[in-house]
Design a protein that fits this description.
By secondary structure, the protein is α+β, with helices and mostly antiparallel strands. It is built from 14 helices and 18 strands. The protein has 2 domains: about 5-200 and about 370-460, Aminopeptidase (3-Layer(aba) Sandwich); about 200-255 and about 300-370, Alpha-Beta Plaits, CATH 3.30.70. The strands form 5 sheets. It has a 6-stranded mixed sheet with strand order 1-2-6-3-7-17, with helices on both faces. The chain is globular, with a radius of gyration of 23 Å. The two termini are about 15 Å apart.
C-alpha cells in the first residue's frame, strides 16, 4: 500500500474539475423533463469506468432510469467488493433560496470548511461521494494496482425509491455476487470525528388527496356552508401526533424493536452538542417525541413528517376561493421491526377512517424501504475502521443514521452480503436543501480512506 495522499494532492484540481462536469448535469430523477439528463449522467459514469480499464461496462436499461455497471476481476480467488451509489439528485426547489445556480458548481469557504466546499445539487448526495470511489480506483491503479476484485453498480433512481434496482438485483444475483457492498451515501459525526453508519431508518412515502366540491367555489357565496379540503386536511394532519409527539396511527408502534438501556447509553456517549445543532439550522428549541433525546429521535425512533402540502390559490395577490382539492406528501421514517408495506397499509386505513363524509379521499403509496442494521464484528467493519484510523488518526464511532437508503436491506436479503456505509458528508452539508455542499477536504480524505479500505479488506479476508 503506497502513499495515496501524494497522488491525490498532485491530481486534486483534475479530480475536482471532473466532478464539476458531472455536477453540471441536472439528473433529477423525479422530473420526467430531466430524463435526457439522466442518460447523459449515466453515460458520463460509464466513460469514467471505461477509462479506468473496467470490463463489461454497460448501461443497463430498466423500466425507469438506467443502471451503470462495470467490473474488474483480477483473480477469482480474491475477495470482491461491490460499490453501490447513485447519480440521480433531488429537485432544486425552492430555486430562489440558492445563492447561485444549483447546477453550476463552485467552491466557497465556509465556517466549517475554511479550505472550501463544493456547492451544487448532488455535491454530497450522492455524486460527490459516489465519485470518490471512481477516483479511489484510479489512485490504487496508479500505485500498486487493485488488491482485489471490484464491481460498480451505480443507479439513477435512489431519490425516487429504487424500484427498478430491486428488480435488477433479483435478476442478476450471479453478476452482482460479492463479499462486501461498499456505500458512501451517509455522513460523519463532524469534520474531525469519523464514524461508520451501522443503522438506517426505513421509509414509507405516501400522498393524500382530499376532494370537496366539484370545482373551486367563491368563498363568499359558499364559505361556511361547504367543507374546505385544506381546513380538513390540516386537522387530519395535526391529529397524526398526540401531545407527546407520538404518532397516533393505530398499530404503528406494535412491532418496533425498542432500544435496550445499553444501546441508549452507547448513543448518549456519541459526541453531540445540542446548542450547535440548534444553531446550525437556525431554531430556538428542539422538538420531538417525549422521553427521548434529539440524537435518539433522529436515529432509533420512528417519525412522521409532512414533506409538502398544497391547494387553493398560492400566487401573488389575493383570490377569494374555496378550493375543491387539497394534497399532502407525507413520509414516515421507520426503525427495526417495522415493515414499510405494513406501515403504508396502516397509514392508508387510518387516513380513510378519519376522513369526514364531507370530502372524499385518495391515498397513494409512492415508495419505501426497510430499516437496516449492520453488525460491528465483521471483516468489513474492521477494515473500514482501520482505514479511517489510518487517515484520521482516530477510531471511527459506530452510529445510526436517521436517513434511508431503501435498497440496502434488499441487498442483504437477495445477495446475502453485508453493506459497509462509509460516509464523508456532514449534517451541515444541506443535502436535499438549497445550497447543498460538500467539503473539499472531505472529498479528498474520502478518496484516500476508500483506497485504504480495499487493502485492509483484502488483507483481513485472507486471514
Amino acid at each position: 500500500m503506497g502513499n495515496f495522499k501524494t497522488y491525490i494532492d498532485k491530481n486534486k484540481e483534475r479530480f475536482l474539475n471532473e466532478l464539476f462536469e458531472l455536477l453540471r448535469i441536472p439528473s433529477i430523477s423525479a422530473n420526467s423533463e430531466n430524463d435526457p439528463d439522466i442518460k447523459i449522467a449515466a453515460n458520463s459514469i460509464k466513460k469514467h469506468l471505461l477509462k479506468l480499464g473496467l470490463n463489461n461496462c454497460e448501461i443497463c436499461e430498466t423500466d425507469g432510469h438506467p443502471i451503470v455497471y462495470g467490473e474488474k476481476i483480477i483473480d477469482q480467488n480474491l475477495p470482491t467488493i461491490l460499490v453501490y451509489g447513485h447519480y440521480d439528485v433531488q429537485p432544486v426547489d425552492p430555486l430562489d433560496l440558492w445563492d447561485q445556480e444549483p447546477f453550476q458548481p463552485y467552491i466557497k469557504k465556509t465556517e466549517i470548511h475554511p479550505e472550501g466546499a463544493i456547492f451544487a445539487r448532488g455535491a454530497c448526495d450522492d455524486k460527490g461521494q459516489m465519485f470518490m470511489h471512481i477516483k479511489a480506483l484510479e489512485v490504487m491503479m496508479q500505485d500498486s494496482g487493485l488488491p482485489c476484485n471490484v464491481k460498480f453498480m451505480i443507479e439513477g433512481e435512489e431519490e425516487v425509491g429504487s424500484d427498478n434496482l430491486e428488480i435488477f438485483v433479483k435478476n442478476n444475483k450471479n453478476k452482482l455476487s460479492n463479499d462486501i457492498i461498499l456505500v458512501s451515501d451517509t455522513g460523519m459525526i463532524n469534520k474531525t470525528t469519523p464514524s461508520i453508519t451501522t443503522g438506517l431508518r426505513g421509509l414509507s412515502y405516501m400522498e393524500v388527496e382530499l376532494t370537496g366540491a366539484n370545482r373551486d367555489l367563491h368563498s363568499g357565496h359558499y364559505g361556511g356552508t361547504v367543507a374546505n379540503p385544506i381546513n380538513i386536511l390540516s386537522k387530519m394532519i395535526a391529529s397524526l401526533h398526540d401531545s407527546n409527539n407520538k404518532i397516533t396511527i393505530p398499530g404503528f408502534y406494535n412491532k418496533v424493536s425498542e432500544a435496550s438501556n445499553d444501546e441508549r447509553k452507547e448513543i448518549s456517549s456519541i459526541p453531540f452538542n445540542l446548542d450547535e445543532f440548534k444553531k446550525s439550522i437556525g431554531i430556538n428549541a428542539e422538538h420531538g417525541e417525549t422521553g427521548y433525546s434529539t440524537i435518539e429521535r433522529q436515529s432509533i425512533r420512528p417519525a412522521l413528517d409532512v414533506n409538502g402540502i398544497w391547494g387553493g390559490y398560492t400566487k401573488e395577490g389575493s383570490k377569494t376561493v374555496l378550493p375543491n382539492k387539497a394534497n399532502a406528501k407525507i413520509s414516515m421514517r421507520l426503525v427495526p421491526g417495522q415493515n414499510w408495506r405494513e406501515i403504508s397499509k396502516l397509514f392508508t386505513k387510518h387516513i380513510k377512517n378519519i376522513t369526514p363524509k364531507t370530502v372524499s379521499v385518495k391515498v397513494t403509496e409512492h415508495h419505501g424501504g426497510e430499516p437496516y442494521v449492520a453488525p460491528t464484528n465483521t471483516v468489513g467493519f474492521k477494515a473500514a475502521s482501520n482505514a479511517y484510523e489510518d487517515v484520521f488518526n482516530l477510531k471511527p464511532i459506530p452510529t445510526k443514521d436517521g436517513g434511508s437508503i431503501p435498497i440496502i436491506a434488499l441487498f442483504e436479503k437477495e445477495l446475502e452480503s453485508k453493506s459497509i456505509l462509509m460516509g464523508f458528508g456532514l449534517d451541515s452539508d444541506a443535502i436535499h436543501s438549497p445550497n447543498e455542499h460538500f467539503g473539499v477536504s472531505n472529498f479528498l480524505l474520502g478518496i484516500e480512506t476508500i483506497s485504504k479500505f480495499y487493502h485492509h479488506f483484502t488483507k483481513l479476508s485472507k486471514g
